Amino acid sequence: ICRRVPLLVRVDGRLLPSLGFAAVLRVLGVPPEDVLPQEGSITVGAKTLPSPIVIPLDAEGNLLLDFASDWLQEIDARSYSGQWRALDEFPDDEDLKKAFGGRTVLVGSTASGSGDFVATPGDPMLPGPLVTFTTINMILTRQFLTEVATRWVWALTLLLPLALGALVAVERPLLAGLAGVGFAGALVSAS
Hints:
Layout lengths: L3 E3 L1 E4 L2 E4 L1 H10 L6 E4 L2 E4 L8 E4 L5 E3 L6 H4 L5 H10 L4 H7 L16 E4 L2 E5 L1 H13 L8 H22 L1 H18 L1
Antiparallel strand pairs: 1-7, 2-3, 4-5, 5-6, 8-9
C-alpha cells in the first residue's frame, strides 16, 4: 500500500529529485543547490524563496502522503485528447487560457485499463499519476502530514478504552469488567 514517497533518490552517488519533487522545484524556480536535505526534513528555497519550505520526512527520508478522499470530485481531471483538440482548434480561447494559465499540468492515464494503479489506504485502485499530483499539491500548499510518536499511539490506545470503560463502569459494572478483560486479551494477542 502506497503511503509515502521518496523525494530524493540516490543514483550513481548523486541525489536526484523524484518526478513530483522536480516539478515543484521547476514551478518555484528553485535550483538544485537550494535544496537542503537534513535528518527528518528537506528545506527548499532558503536562498531563493521569500519563505522557504520545510518538508517533513519520515525516518527513511520519505514524504508521508495525504491523498484526496474523493479524487474525482477534488481534482480537475480532464481528457488529454479533448483538451489537445480544443487547444488546436481554438488556440486563442479565453476559457482554455483561464483553465490552464498559471497551473501545473500533469499528463497521465486514469483509464481503468491502463495498468498504472496503486493501492492506498483509501483507494485500492488509485491512478498512479495521482501519487505525483499529491506530492506536488502537498508541497506547493505546504500541507504536510507527520507521524505521531509511538509513545502517543500506545498512550491513546490504552487510555481511550480505559476512559470509556470508566464511563460504562458507572452504569454497567459487569459489562465494563467483561470489556476490560476483552481489551486486555486483544492487547496481549496484538503484542
